[in-house]
Amino acid sequence: MTNVKRRRGLIGEAAAANFLNSKGYRIIVRNFRCSLGEVDIIAQDGKEIVFIEVRTRSSTFYGTPQESVDVRKQYRLRLLANYYLCQNGLTEIPCRFDVVAVQLNREDKVTNIEVIKGAF
CA 8 to CA 2: how far, in whole Å? Predict the structure, then answer.
């Protein structure tokens, strides 16, 4: 991953976390990693555990941020969520998958944030 993409990803994740906090989500962990991969944000929204994929774009030339969460990524996130829930004894807690789409301008300033609740 290039430094520019990495920097933009970090900007997007920080903006997403702040935005989610302002909407009442309680962030449990950011960048949860295990042998299966990584979940950008795990949060609690009401009584649900929410597994959140953050996608950041500075252009829509290749599509919107939310369009980039393909079937393969969804499958991987489901595996990660199952692992996290089992490891933490939370298998009886309802959960969902949200996508946070962050749009940046050419100066890497956030111009739009959209939360898609229950995206898949």
Answer: 10
pLDDT, tens digit (0-9, with 9 covering 90-100), for 28-76: 999 999 999 999 999 999 999 999 999 999 988 888 888 889 999 999 9
User: pLDDT tens digits for 75-109?
Assistant: 999 999 999 999 999 999 999 999 999 999 999 99
Q: pLDDT-derived band of residue 1, with 50, 70 and 90 as boundaries?
A: low
User: Where do the structural domains in the chain lie, given as residue ranges?
Assistant: 3-116
Q: Is 37 left (phi over 0), alpha (psi -120 to 50) or beta?
A: left
> What DSSP assignment string belongs to 67-92?
GG--HHHHHHHHHHHHHHHHHTT-TT
- Asked if residue 104 lies in contact with residue 110, where contact means CB atoms within 8 angstroms, the answer is yes
Taking alpha carbons only, the member of 35, 12, 16 closest to residue 27 is 16
Q: Name the CA dihedral angle for 96, 78, 69, 71, rounded to a multiple of 10 degrees.
A: -120
Q: State the CATH architecture for 3-116.
A: 3-Layer(aba) Sandwich (3.40)
